[in-house]
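Hello again,

I reread your note about wanting to compare the complex against the isolated chains. To keep things tidy I'm splitting this into two emails, and this first one only covers the full assembly. Below are the input lines as submitted, including protein chains and any nucleic acid or small-molecule components. They are followed by the predicted structure of everything together. The single-chain runs will come separately.
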Amino acid sequence: MSRNIYFTPGPSELYFTVEDHIKQALKEQFPSQSHRGNSFKKCFQSTVENLRELLNVPSNYHILFTSSATEIWERIIQNCVERQSVHLVNGAFSQRFYQTSVDLGKDAEKIACAEGSCASWKDIDPEHANELIAFTHNETSTGAAQPIEDIYAAREKFPDALIAVDVVSSIPYVNLDLDRVDTIYFSVQKSFGLPAGLGVWLVNDRCMEKANALQQKGLKLGTYHSLPSLVKQAGSYQTPETPNMLGIYLLDKVSRDMLQKGLDQIRKETEYKSTLLYYTIEEHASFKPFVKNSKFRSQTVVVAETEIDSQEVVNQLSSKGLIVGKGYGKFKEQHIRIANFATHSKEQIEMLVDQLNRIG
Amino acid sequence: MSRNIYFTPGPSELYFTVEDHIKQALKEQFPSQSHRGNSFKKCFQSTVENLRELLNVPSNYHILFTSSATEIWERIIQNCVERQSVHLVNGAFSQRFYQTSVDLGKDAEKIACAEGSCASWKDIDPEHANELIAFTHNETSTGAAQPIEDIYAAREKFPDALIAVDVVSSIPYVNLDLDRVDTIYFSVQKSFGLPAGLGVWLVNDRCMEKANALQQKGLKLGTYHSLPSLVKQAGSYQTPETPNMLGIYLLDKVSRDMLQKGLDQIRKETEYKSTLLYYTIEEHASFKPFVKNSKFRSQTVVVAETEIDSQEVVNQLSSKGLIVGKGYGKFKEQHIRIANFATHSKEQIEMLVDQLNRIG
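Full-complex prediction:
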């Protein structure tokens, strides 16, 4: 069986060190050890310390583990919203967070935009913006990235609202000042290059205060994964339930690997690779970037409109062992999506570009 | 590093085929493939088919995946209880399910008993037993197992209530007639011998009807992991979120391995091993079974009272590479807990018994 390279936007190629870390975990019999014992607690602590350093996390933030980013949508609404939330909807994933709030009975406001663009914080109704404003930094379905200046502007304009930022497919590339937002979250099967099944939720003390206030008003915050329960357990480097221990172990190791490589270096390489990808699809006879306005273009998920049916493009690349994603939802046949994550080397992207240039 | 054998009651020793299956999954690059693609859907379908065969699951049951059994407690209450639930509480884990119902604002009734024994269904207040009766078949904290005849008796007495059975640490050994209950659930890090981070939830159509009725009354069932959402996605062999794909892959393979070995054989071996363990602790100068009434004794988690401090026992066994659990909660120092799961061979249990006999 020949080995493929996965440029799909999540799940994606495993970070290149993951296989060795899994083998080491098995050798140490880590999955058999108690999640209440010292080896797991040390692993939890080390993971949190690595993430604090890598992502420059302020001390008033807690780092919590859930099973997915999808779960975090539910937990944010349950724990941080009494009545109203505002969602800047740039595509299918930000739409699902909005829908989560609706499904939980909240008065959710959607600020929409044409797909391939980004909604404007200026359209937010100030009457609605008292509790939570939700941004999706990088919309994996369309390749549109919200400029972080928009996020900071919303903070200035609505200082009382909690600002939540979905960084699922842009972390650790995105350089966000966490002092100017209140909670960010991601899952690990994208740029961290880990097997799926783990969500990472960073929340500051303002979110905790909000959760406590809601609880005092008699609202139900959930049970084992309420913010107070998660934060209490995290205080002793534990989780309320038996968690995806192997996932946390691998996140520990890969965040350490990324620290050793250096985030500046990862960011520089990401920009080199994205420049090459956008140049290639702009110059290509059959492709063009879906996101027209370059200030909205994602550096980590590059989406191309294709005149050739996307399945044909996928098949041609696949025959060379290069796996890219088709379009999302209604764009399935008209788009291809290419992940440009930390694990994708310059050489791999150059190889992909060579093959893209042979198409059409 | 010398290899230990983990007899801890979860996480526990990995099923003996797991390492090879993980290596194969990595070779196939399974974790990089889309959870919306055919390879994952085939894996989901195969897992469900294996579990249906292994556990003799009736056709009116759905098989669903969550992140833990702890999560399933929350989802059962959200989806199947409007006002009242009844909980037979035999120890710390059944207590936590009861507490989950309380935390979600329900009028939960607790039928308690002395630890090391089992609560009686005869103590259930018929006024409370209209919606859900929750049994914990095997209380991992004390080693007490509820006789399945009690469960069937409650069904006869309260035919309108849904019967939920926690089989976390007794599946696949427990031989439960699923036509006489409505939902069972477990996590995979116990007798299935998998890395933690996956819950398996079996629900019949009566549970679905209840969830639909609650929804029509305007209750919130949750969002991505509401029963209707899980069942809808499972209909096309998918999950609402990106799940623990590797966990599902391994469950597929290990349930196939168990089918090939045969559940009758696994059950016979379990009983041989438990007989040996109980005989050993009954005859031992320093140990005796915590569960006095043999009809309440678990076959899969054997708990011994120890006159020697449990840490000392654990240390002595550990020096031989044999890892057993200490007591749970307040029994930490007075008990040891020994898992007797499908992966523990007769030879391993005999080795443990030899060492137990050298203690004291």
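For quick reference: The first helix of chain A runs from residue 18 to 27.

B.
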